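[scheduler] slot 2 assigned
[scheduler] job type: sequence-to-structure, two independent chains
[scheduler] chain ordering preserved from manifest
[runner] begin chain α
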Amino acid sequence: MSKAMEIDLDGAAIALDGDSNLIAEAALAALLANGGLLVEGSHARDADILLMSCPLRPGTVAGDPRSLYADARKAAVTMTERGSGRIVFLVSATAGMPMRRHPRFSMDNASILAGMRTLAMEFGPKVLVNAVGVGAVEDETMVSGDKAMLSHTPVGRAGSIEEAVAAVLFFCDPLNTYTTGQMLGVDGGWMAGYGRNF
């Protein structure tokens, strides 16, 4: 991750909840490399930053969006009692632009996005709640999205894990104090509004 953004988390407690995938694991590693400390198990409720990882590939079995929302809400309550916190959801770009070929996956991600925005309204200003909407990302295989997205991606290529991680770091940066309730699309422009036949 030599090109990765650098931030100073100064010992902030970091927790990961939800789906395990390469982007979530890389984001967690980057947060730890930037001064965060991992908390797990019963200590996860003490997190200053909670990374909520959702399924990023169509066909991946998703947990119940209501359960993810409930976990994030519990964390937001605790963060509010302590005076501050950050929650970052990793979702598919289909949260903001549904794919005809993946209706259920699109709907599940859209409901998570709506829940994220609700949390941002309810727990601001103490807790900042945002999402990274990941499009087609390839490593050795497709990590996120659907190859069909590439035919409608203006940058003409799949994204990298590092590019998705940089967006997570942006939302976690202590210098970022005014962004909440937003989804940052890391999708090569896929959501820009092309007519889609898939």
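[runner] end chain α
[runner] begin chain β
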Amino acid sequence: MSAPNNPEKQPLRQRPNRIEKRQQREELILERAGELIAEYGFFELKMSDLARACDISVGTLYAHFASKEDLLLGLAILAGQKRAGFFDYARAHDGSAMEKFIVASLLDIRFSIDHPQWFEAEYLALAPSIWQRATPSHHQSQLAGIGRITEMFQSFLSDAADELGVSGDVIAQTRNLNLGSWGLSFGMNALALSEITDRHYGTELRSNAIDIFCDSLADLLAGAGWHVDDARQIVRDLAARYADLK
């Protein structure tokens, strides 16, 4: 028979401190909010329902997020963090800087398509009617997250200057391309999630968003100076490897 455990010899588990508890509760709130929004939509979300889903009081909920606008920015920040995790695949890609930029662009749109509730939070959080009503700290955190992702894309393009035939001020000459590719990805997702496009494309755009995006991105890069043989096929091959292009 084994000897009973001696409680004096058991390692003590550190209890989470107040800051850690607050952070854990905030993460729970955002995860539950994401689930409820995915099911009912953001505008149907009630703070009382969210508090109940988290097994906390409404007062505790408001202590974390002073308004629905604050909650939305919190969701957008969390979405950005989840999105940023995908970009490690782009950084580790065993190809040129331009290919890393393409892979990151493909992963970006793939994440939005696979997680429409997170994309919707990011999309809505950009509206002035939302962020102007949120607390400055949440807005600044949102901007900081977007800034880090933007800088990553910009670094790929700066490293790809030779492939683009860029000389002189690399940052200035690649900034518009960075913005243009972001607009293409963001707009493609917004259109794919909207029923407005059904009148013109049926479900074609929604079911073939990545396929269409591949050709559009290849054309944009070719127009910006990326001269390679069969740019569309290169982008599609990378999509097949990283974005599960069917």
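[runner] end chain β
[qc] chain β: The mean pLDDT is 88.
[scheduler] slot 2 released
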